[in-house]
User: What shape does this take?
Amino acid sequence: MGGHVDPVKIGLVGYGFGGRYFHAPLIAAAPECDLLGVVTTSAERRDLVSAEHPGVDVFDSLGDLAAAGAEAVSVSTPAETHSALTDEAIELGLSVVCDKPFSMDPTAARRSAALAASRGVTLSPYQNRRWDSDFLTVRALVDDGTLGEVRRLESRFERYAPQNGPGRSGGGTLLDFGAHLVDQALTLLGPVESVYAESRPRDNGLDDDVFVALRHENGAVSHLWGSWSQYAAGPRFRVTGTAASLVVTTADTQEDVLITGARPSGADPWGVERDSDVDRVFTEDGSRPVSLVSGAWDTYYPTFARAVRGEGPPPVEATDAVATADVLEAARVSVDRRATVGMGAER
Assistant: This one.
């Protein structure tokens, strides 16, 4: 991870589920970060901050946080507010981590990325699922040649919790789960030339049971599923290459561990999953079990802090969020038109 970095004074906007469990604990656990304060106007959430992070100040606004000496901020609020808050923070001279979905549309994503570049601040989408144990395992076996040239990626975020799906402020399942699924596919297989998507409306009018098919420029295909109403979830990954196929059924549990109140600084080792016989590599000669690579959500904020200090790139580039937003918009158009959409097509 490199040498010592003067801790970056970072604030958090929002203390709902994401802010409370995905951001505050990981910021607080990173020696490279100093959790300066939390912006929330909810009396209940102010009390939670005081109880869970004693000594951390609470602020009414981004302006107040900046005036208190913040150098950076993490935005974890309803999705429809992400772009406005990100741009406001950048205008205040703050570097920004923005939770997913990074924006509601590609235009807003481009605006934020361009604004950060013009102001010389670090802007990084919070694509923490790049550091899931299951996805890191896929990347490792692709990188070392075990699978050969990847021809097909199948990836799923499926569960049965219809009452817990993203509400209107979250933009629906395509933006919510899709933001991670598409980002992982682009990270693994590169740019996309065409998109086909399907979805089913929920009772609230938002989409669910989302399926997205991507044809990548390198000829590979990604099939992505997202659902909050699936009784029988499929394997987290099935990846087929010219030399082997990989099936990963064991899903990353870092979210579950953080919800219990455990922290990376108190867990040794962090992110380790139990071996399972259902996680296997298959070849023409048979199959063998694989151990999952340890999950590493705890590396995101140290890397971000180093980027703020000018000591390397951010954990996720803002341009990656723009690329993901473009694909998600093409998927939305595909659903509406019931047709395949080319990435260069006028929408």
